Each structure stands twice: as C-alpha cells, then as structure tokens.
Amino acid sequence: MTQINPIAQLNEMLQRRDFGAVLALTDTLLRKSQNNASAWHARARAAFGVGRLGLADECIDRSIALGEKSHDVLLLRAIIHHRLARSDLAIAGLRALMASNAPNIVDATLALAEVLHRADRRDELQALVTKGGAWLLDERADIFTARVTAKTDPQGTADRLELLARGGGQAIMRRIAGFDAVRMLDAAGHYRRAFDLATHLHATTSESFDIDGLIADTRQQHALLARAKPWFLPRAPAVNGVALVVGMPRSGTTLLEQMLDRHPDISGIGEYDGVTNIGNAVQSAGAWPGGLGILDTAAAKQMQNDYLQGARARQRANTRWTFDKSLHVWKWLPAVAAVLPGAVCFHIVRDPRDCAISLLLSNFHPKSYGWTSSLNDIQRVMTAERALAPLALATLGMPHETIVYENLVDDPRAHMRRATERLGVVMQESVLAPQGNMRTVLTLSHEQVRKPINKSSIGRWKNYEFAFDDSWSALAGAHDARRTH
Prior knowledge:
The protein has helices spanning 6-15, 19-32, 37-49, 53-65, 71-83, 87-99, 105-118, 122-131, 141-149, 154-165, 171-187, 191-205, 211-225, 253-261, 274-284, 297-314, 333-339, 352-360, 375-395, 405-410, 412-423, 473-482, and strands at residues 242-246, 266-268, 321-324, 344-349, 400-404. By secondary structure, the protein is mainly α. Among the domains are: 150-205; 213-482, Rossmann fold, CATH 3.40.50.300. Strands 2-3-1-4-5 form a 5-stranded parallel sheet, sandwiched between helices.
C-alpha cells in the first residue's frame, strides 16, 4: 500500500483551501515532532486563511527558526507583520524580497503597495507606481494605480474601478476594486450608484454564511441569561489590564480604540483573535454555552494564558492595559466571563441604520462576515446583538461601560473621562485627538480615524433612505432613546 506523504497532503489541502483539515493534520504532525518546519509553515498558511493571525504569527516564526526561509515563507512573514499593524517590519521584509529579485517579486511588490496604502504613505506608493516594473502588468496592480489617481481624478478613478468590479477578473480583485469605487461614489454623492454597485458585489462575490446557526446560538445564550443569574462561576483567576470592545462592526469601535490608544497607559492591540480562540476552545471542550460551570479549570487557565500571551505580544511597551478591538466578543461574553474574569468591556452602539448602511457598503471578509451582504441579514444580527450583549454584561456581572457613538462624538471629553476612570488611569488630553495616532489602522475605518472627531457620519443613512423600510423602526427608536440630544 502506497504511503501518503503528509507534506504533499497538506499542500493539496491548502490548494483547495481546506484550512480546517490543515490545522487538524498539522496538529497531529507537530505532536509527533515540534521540529517539522514544513508543518509549521502549512499551519501558518491555514491559520492566516481563517483569520487567526496570532496563531499564524507564532507558526511562521517557528518555521523560520527551524530554517525554513524560502521566498514564500518570507513573503507570508511580511504579510502577517502587515496584518498585525507592524508596518515598518512588513515594508522592510518586502523590500528585501524585491531587492533579492525573488521569484515572487510581483507578489511582494503588490503586497508592498497594499502596506503603503494602509499606512497612509502616499508619497512612497506614488513613487512605487511611477518607478514601474513587471508588477504593473498584473491585473491586481490596476487597483493601486487607481488609488494613486484617486485624489487628482476621483471621477475617472471611480469609473475605472467600477469597470474592474463588473468585469471578469478574480472575485477578490473585483471585490476590492468595487468597494473602493463604492466609497468614492458615496463621497461624491452618487448614492444610488454606490448602493447598486455594492449590491452587485455582494451578489457576485459573497460566500455562503450560516446566519440561522448564528441566530440560534444567540438565542440559546439568551435563554440561559433570562434566568437572571449566572449558571457558572469563573473557571480561571481574575485578570488585570484587559479591556475589550463589545459591539458591531462599523459602530465606532476603531475610533474608540484610537482614542484610548493615545493614552500612555493603554495599548490598542487591534482585532486580536484571542477571544474567538477561547470560544472555539470552549466549544471543543463541549462546554458551550450551558456547560461552562463544568469547564475544566486547568483547561480554562491554559486558554487564559494563551490569550494573555498573544495580547502581550501586541502590547505597546510600558503600558498597563491592552484594548482588544475584536468584533466577535459580543458572541462570546459568557466564555469571556468564565475564562477572563475581571476583563473590562466597553459596549459601543451606533444608530442601527447608519451602522447597517456602512456595513453594506464596506468590504468585509465575504465568508466570516457573510451576513453583511444584505440589509435583512444585517438587521437580524444587529437585533440579536442588541438583545444579547446588554443582558449578558449585566447578568454575568461583567465590569463595563456603555458608550453611544453619537454621544461620544458630541462630548468626547466626558466619555473619555468615564472610560479612563473605569480603567483606573488619569485622563489625558491626548485621547481627544485620535487623528494624531500614528499606528497603522487595518480596519475599514482606516481613513476616517485619521481625521479629527467629527459628526459627518451621523445620519448618513438618510442618503440611502430608499433602502430602509418600517422594519427598522423598533431598533432605531430604542437607539434614539439612548442618545442625548
């Protein structure tokens, strides 16, 4: 009988994007030997593919330490640096690959263009495009040449991007080009055209998403919480210096992080996957959600240690707090209470219609955020979050503050004073000027948060009033009652 080469098997799995199978097989291989550089590399690729950046970061370093320094490994190393907001390291690694004339020089140059764009290093991006090279012959380069002309020829750029989006190229490139065009069309006041293009992109590039499964899970949690008392005690010791955002994407989470990150005692760590890893581990242990009371304490302590190790790796030196901007915390609050007791939560909410239209017009991951592809699905998830999060925070006795986005923008000083008091640090004027934060922002709000705090996004939904019906009235009314007018 022919023996299957496990590395060849991993490559086949990666080729068909079966990342779960890769993670399972590499787990088996690495239990046998921690010195398998190829297995670490494959595991890094799979972890990156499912958005587990902390795991990918660890695995790619293990692979390199074992001598795996191929051009593919070094490219992935640089890209992971970028996704973890380590722009200088990413740029240095990519420039080194380009200087060595590596076989993947085109991919390295395209990656460099993306890093420069996200880091707002426009002059360097302009110079890269002007210099030319073989990379400009790649269809993916059209997006970056368009980004260079966006300031000088916005209408022509939007037209070219829309042509790319409606063309026959790769789905991921059509999606990136298309949502760049959507943003530009929206800024120019072409609202119907922006909406129609976004709808087209969702219809032609989105992937299937089990929204019924997500809603069923939230209902199961809600039923347990409705008993008005916790069904478990903490399964690990209390943590210190851990703060988490709780809220929907596009609800002001990046603004809040950028403000708090300007405080000398607080370090934003971006959209860290640590809480999702805890949730997955609790599920694998068969303890989610009703069995949290019997979750093995040693296992819970290991989950906590893994979270803290990853958070500290992202933490700015000489700070006391990490601020985790993961957008999935709201789904895992009982797991957070069990494994990270003492973590401080900031529940942020925004006008549901403003939030919804921003979600629909944005390029979220087409699989993990597949529910953002229609206003109907967005409404279902938003309704679930707004019912679940406040109840979980109160019932489980989790230290928290609720922040209404519109109120934060109206009176940032009062809300920052409240937030810093909750964290036990002295209020600093620097938190009121998030535009002065030089860290790379990798969220879809990366351009907005480079501007001073403003009210331009409040009431944005009215530009798309044609898309909303009376089914939004209950959510909108409940939110309006929270606002200070």
